[in-house]
Structure formats: C-alpha cells, structure tokens
C-alpha cells in the first residue's frame, strides 16, 4: 500500500513537469520510464541490485546512467535523467515499474485513451478486430487500445475489461442468467 502511494506521487510529479512542456514531452517521459521498467523486469539480477542495501548509491547511479544511455533519445532527456537519479538517491528504484504504470495511466487519461482486453471464444481476424474496436470506441466515446484474448470457456460472444469495468456479453453469462432465472421460478 505504501509503495503504491509513493509510486503515484512520483508519477504525478513527473507528469506535472512534463505537462508544462506539452504532449510530446509526456510521450518521451512515458517511453523512458517504460523502457527502464522493462529492462528492470527482464533482469531479476538488476531488480535485486536496485533493492540491495550493500550496493552503494553511487554504483546504482552508474547503472542507471548506463541504462538510460541504452534506451536512446528518451534516456538522454535531462529531466528523465534527474528523475531517475532522484529515484536512486531516495532508494525508490524498486518502484520503477509501478511508477511507469501510474505515469502511463495518467498519460492515457490525458489523451482520452482507455486500455483493456477483449476476450472471445474464437480468434478474431484483423478485419473483425478493427470492426470491434471501431464499434466499441463509438459506444464508449474513447480511443481504445485492446489486447485480444481467446477464452473458449465463454462459449460465444465477448467479455470486455477496461480498468475495473467488465462488460460480459458472453453466451456463458447469458446461460448462467437463464439458469438462475429458472431456479428462482421453481
């Protein structure tokens, strides 16, 4: 819980700085944080090193600077560099993944983008995916970025999850509802 609050505060602080410079800057910050978080998640040894109290802050700073150099132009931004070094100095590097996730959620909200997943009983071809996204965007009045999944247990229809909202238009849900109605009627 405490880590979640701390991650949110750091993400909000960086977001506020980026907002002053515009959307391109926010995108740059988001890319940098996501790239660093991916590198950290991809290497358990790196994640352990960031949490290790026996590794000095100076050594962690050097590692962070090298990682920033690896990610290209996004890592060369002065604000990103200073932000990551601040995380190092305050021993908040283990929260990098949470901070990146919070920052990108703020960025999505700023752009009016909703991320989610759409589960169907059978795989959808590209045309059907495009149609589904267009229809849902029109209904929700938001730009959607969806991850598609196949879940044969829903039998037919679809289940859409966006954040905490679940829209279940599956055959399984309809059959369960019918079963409950029949049980109550008897």
Can you tell me about this structure?
With 186 residues, this protein is an alpha+beta fold. Helix content is 67%, strand content 15%. The protein has nine helices and four strands, in the order H-H-H-H-H-H-H-E-H-E-E-E-H. The protein has helices at 2-21, 23-42, 44-51, 57-70, 73-76, 78-89, 96-111, 126-140, 171-185; strands at residues 113-120, 143-150, 157-162, 165-170. The chain has a four-stranded mixed beta sheet. Strand 1, helix 8 and strand 2 form a beta-alpha-beta unit. Helix 2 (23-42) runs antiparallel to helix 7. The longest helix is centred in the first third of the chain and has 20 residues, at 2-21. The protein is elongated and about 70 Å long. The relative contact order is 0.12. The model has no long low-confidence stretch (mean pLDDT 88).
Which blocks of ≥5 consecutive residues have pLDDT under 50?
none
User: Main β-sheet, in a few words?
Assistant: 4 strands, mixed
The percentage of residues in β strands lies in 15-25%
Number of strands: 4
Specify the overall morphology. Answer: elongated
Integer-rounded radius of gyration: 21 Å
* Strand neighbour order, sheet with most strands: 2-1-3-4
**Helix/strand order, N-terminal first:** HHHHHHHEHEEEH
Q: Which percent bin holds the helix content?
A: 55-70%
Nearest-integer average pLDDT: 88
- Structural class, please? alpha+beta
C-alpha termini separation: 47 Å
Total helix count? Answer: 9
Task: Summarize the topology.
Blueprint: H1 2-21, H2 23-42, H3 44-51, H4 57-70, H5 73-76, H6 78-89, H7 96-111, E1 113-120, H8 126-140, E2 143-150, E3 157-162, E4 165-170, H9 171-185
Parallel strand pairs: 1-2
Antiparallel strand pairs: 1-3, 3-4
Helix pairs in contact: 1-2, 1-7, 2-3, 2-7, 4-6
